[in-house]
């Protein structure tokens, strides 16, 4: 009827135009002709393969398996599977149990390690909490593996600390002065509510019939029992926090008095342990917390500390001793004291216990400098042969260490003056200049590569176990980078 111009037929959207080129076959809907093999999904030198062989053939999982004594109940996941996931997760920065659960579905490496199983986050979290001590024990196993591979020399070690954010907000902390005021206020509120409840009960005895008509047989005008219960629970938390602060103040005063008495007896060439105990108890009885001393309601063991950026955070003080040769961690611990000075002796002793030998040199920054540590360094050199290089003060940016004065050391020079002079000598400068290159990259690698800036577990024991698990995974990563799969073959062969 009508003339219509022909219209060119449109191609369906999304379909490529015909080109004179041959592409590789691609069919998203093609069914696999053969069952897939998880073993073919990863390269031969992948970290996940290293972790799998490590858990299956090298690590001792006896402490984990020893905890399974109950024969009844639904079969749990194989401990090897869970340890594989946790080691690989903590090595690659995937530490959250929910994140690990998601990775078991989305990530090829996690699916390979889990043999295509998918444990839920509750199972992962419960396993980590239940076997935390055994998982922290992997740190010693990783250190011994590094020693067998010749990666630990103990010629020179560096000790340092870093602040790890606790799984708690600093806004959930309260000072001792405010605790006392808040406790008095809550006690007054409880007394007021109790008086009001007593008055209502007395009135109710005379007006039961009238109240039943007004509010019903089971009704109440005011839910006083619930209000009382809420405030009593709040009061119990306040009292527990106050008791914690008072106990810490007493312990600190006791330790200081006992140390002071022991040093007095050493100067007098006497030894009376009972006098030491009496001095400590007397000081503890008189101790009173500072008004600004704080306790946290979420994680009572954590403390407000100043980090390297100058910010105050709710944290733990993580300590590490690192060997110079391959940056292997030889000792790891967590304390609740912001100061590093209390950890000099304990950390170097732990390193010697873990490795079976004392280091020839120990490098420490000014945070460890104290009269007690300088005296301990002098004794350690005589007894263990460890030569300590301890900074006596902080240098300004780009400030150079002045050269050592010529001539003999004055006889009346203090231990601090002698240490400062020692660091100004050429050997002292050369040794101490290695400190930053040994220990500080370790903290950077754990914070960034392993996402270890913030702890997931609460309490001092939980923080210590997680820090040692992070240290173990750091050492295992060093072993993988240094020796690879061949290193495992050498250990198992």
Automatic annotation (TrEMBL):
Positions of the Transposase IS4-like domain: 306-476
Region called Disordered, residue ranges: 247-303
Superkingdom, taxonomy of origin: Bacteria
Residue ranges with Basic and acidic residues bias: 249-272
Domain Transposase InsH N-terminal per the UniProt entry, residue ranges: 37-130
PANTHER family: TRANSPOSASE, TRANSPOSASE DDE DOMAIN-CONTAINING PROTEIN
Protein name: IS1182 family transposase
